[in-house]
């Protein structure tokens, strides 16, 4: 056994027998040991969490110290606890790279471009005047009066054309649900 294992093993044995100063010293040495352990395993972006992991591990050592098998190396037991605390931390805090589904399915084309393309294809199935009226009023936000004026028709005729065009699109693409 190396000197660290020997020293920690002696401290844990004494602390299990009720030696409070030995237990305090064990916690001090474990704190130093765990700071190095977690510091080497966490990315610099998670370095702020090292102290939290140390505290979680020390608490687990404290609450489970009576389960330690004194015939086995103490550092291996502490490593197992520290490893599980680290894994839990990474699961809670890790940022996994994600790819938005739109980009994945469209080969990187922005969703807005695809929607505009789809809209043009759908409106292309309608008569020119009707598709232009729907585009002006429903997509661009113009008033019915402005769209009607641009086409030289009455507001009523524009409303009817828009209504019939949308009804035709609904029947074609969503099924006629009357």
Describe this structure in words.
It is a single chain. By secondary structure, the protein is mainly α. 72% of the residues lie in helices and 0% in strands. The chain is built from nine helices and no strands. Helix 1 packs across helix 2 and helix 7 runs antiparallel to helix 8. The chain starts with a helix and ends in a 5-residue tail after the last helix. About 3% of the residues have low confidence. Belongs to the sigma-70 factor family. ECF subfamily. This is Sigma-70 family RNA polymerase sigma factor.
Can you identify the CATH superfamily of the largest domain? Answer: RNA polymerase sigma factor, region 2, helix turn helix motif
Number of spatially distinct domains: 2
Count, helices:
9
Class of secondary structure makeup: mainly alpha
Listing every helix as H and every strand as E from the N terminus to the C terminus, the arrangement reads HHHHHHHHH
Percent in strands = under 5%
Shape: rod-shaped
Any low-confidence stretches, pLDDT <50, length ≥5? Answer: 95-99
Q: Based on the structure given, which CATH architecture of the largest domain is correct?
A: Orthogonal Bundle
User: Average pLDDT across residues?
Assistant: 83
Keywords: DNA-binding, Sigma factor, Transcription, Transcription regulation
Family: Belongs to the sigma-70 factor family. ECF subfamily.
Domain RNA polymerase sigma-70 region: 35-94
Pfam family, one: Sigma70_r4_2
């Amino acid at each position: 056994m190396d000197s660290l294992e020997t020293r920690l093993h002696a401290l844990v044995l004494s602390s299990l027998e009720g030696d409070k100063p030995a237990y305090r010293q064990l916690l001090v040495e474990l704190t130093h040991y765990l700071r190095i352990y977690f510091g080497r395993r966490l990315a610099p972006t998670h370095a702020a969490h090292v102290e939290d992991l140390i505290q979680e591990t020390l608490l687990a050592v404290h609450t489970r110290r009576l389960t330690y098998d004194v015939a086995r190396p103490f550092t291996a037991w502490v490593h197992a606890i520290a490893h599980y605390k680290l894994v839990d931390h990474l699961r809670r805090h890790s940022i996994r790279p994600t790819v938005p589904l739109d980009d994945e399915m469209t080969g990187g084309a922005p969703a807005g471009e695809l929607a505009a393309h789809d809209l043009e294809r759908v409106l292309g199935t309608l008569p020119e005047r009707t598709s232009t009226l729907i585009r002006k009023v429903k997509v661009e936000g113009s008033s019915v009066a402005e769209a009607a004026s641009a086409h030289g028709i009455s507001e009523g005729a524009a409303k009817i054309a828009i209504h019939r065009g949308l009804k035709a699109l609904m029947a074609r693409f969503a099924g006629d649900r009357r």
